[in-house]
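Question (not urgent): is this output format expected?
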Amino acid sequence: MSSTFPRFQWHPLKERYDVVIIGGGAHGLACAYYLAKEHGITDVAVLERHYLGSGNSGRNTTIIRSNYLTPEGVRFYDASVKLYEGLSEELGFNVWFSQRGHLTLAHTDASVRTMLRRAETNQLEGIPSRVIWPDEIKKLCPLLDVSDRPRYPILAALYHPPGGVIRHNAVVWGYALRANELGVHLHQNTEVTGLRVENGAVVGVETTRGFIRAGTVLSAVAGYTTTISQMAGVPLPISSYPLQACVSEMLKRFLDVIVVSGSLHVYVSQADKGELVMGASVEPFGAYSREGTLSFLEDFSAHLLELFPALQHVRILRQWAGVCDMTPDYSPIMGFTPVKNFLIDAGWGTWGFKASPICGQTMAQLIATQRTPELIEPFRLSRFYERGLVGEKGAASVGH
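Got this back:
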């Protein structure tokens, strides 16, 4: 299996496509791939305003897990983990999925109760997760300070063995390469500037390269969702916030598990090359900025050193940010909208990359059959008007 940069076949931009997907990240590319492979729909265009994977798919910290709080969330993300487990073989392209275990730390009695609830929900859905205590935490992660010295001592943790990390660029390239081979047109540097709506239905998209007619339009643009939905006249309960991350210098291997603290707003894993990949919570203000800030480094470093005092002399090499699309119940919005032929794949907040395979597969099924798959029915837009919220705030880790 290859992991080198793929070569895509170039296609001219047609005047019409059966399906136009706005957003050339992992979600949009996965949907295009499954449309072609599983449903034989190849008259598909993926429009990306920059280069493929230039948005959140290329800016996330690649953590994959399914240890959520609600049964709906657990089932959905477990299906995604299972697809990730076979994705290298499926695509014939090594995506470097490494399942090394995921620790969500609890620093208060309330957090411990939440971890116990999550563990029980996970186990009822057949997901291996359990609450472990400081002695076992220390064995899994020897450098973690489990003493009573920190301001917020570690009382317990939710241990989720299937959790892991993956190469985000490999996922993007793998889906793009296979979709392209199946006949999907990938158009980079093609920005959508408007949606044309006639008689309550979207009939096409305006772009910097001209107008394109479309039978169906899917928006998969993460933090920029509301800018696209407004073009169709569809209001969404979504707010966009910057989320920052950083990487350290390369270190000798010492961290075999992923460590997350929702209370301290810290998460960290160690990449295969040795650098630490780290992040924090979304910023407290709405914006579309993708710039790093000094205040993030100061706050994040203080909390990280409470967990790992031995890292005090480690140098940060670079930092970056993405734009997260947050919903009121911290769950995604997938499927139909009040405007006919306009579909959305949105509201992923801080956890969208891990959903890429199952979101692509289910949205492809929805487009092909015009019926909402049972797995994603709880995440319909209308739930906000039907009192059907899917509250995942307690499991969004650093997303709140």
